[in-house]
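Hi P.,

Sorry for the delay on this. The queue was packed all week, but I finally got your sequence through. Input first:
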Amino acid sequence: MESGEQTLYVLNIHVHPRYTAGRYDYDVAVVELKSRMALKDTVVPACLPEADFAGSVLLAGKYMGVVTGWSHAPNATEVTGKLLLNHLSYDTLDTCVSRFNGQVTNKMLCSSPREKADCVIGPGSPVLTLHKDVFFLTGLVSPAPEPGCRQGYVMQKVPRLLTWLKPLVDRL
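Then the structure:
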């Protein structure tokens, strides 16, 4: 264990009520921890954006996103290794729909393909957008539909989930 490392336990998993197996929209859940996470001084929590602000400013193409997470290994039961970080550019919905053969809906977004994409950051990883020194949670990485993550990350748009997410987070 590293200095300040924590073991966190799950109390409950809140699956989106419109989740359907095999579909990518609404493929999201909130993990409720048994106790609060202790943040280091160098860790800054992300804010939930207002839907209009996210759509017209954060996801409009002017700002880059940052996806962070741990290496994704199929069938892994724990997180290992160093926290990874990738920068990405958001694509338009029309581009996403055509690239992923209609598997992306208006509740989702995708990033531009990255040269030499490593595809190591897995589903559920947060996508953040920095605006005026504040990080906003704008997306959550979804499993990559065909032709795969080398064509860009596919994400749930967090602003589209706010009517479900905000009351849930406020009561936790």
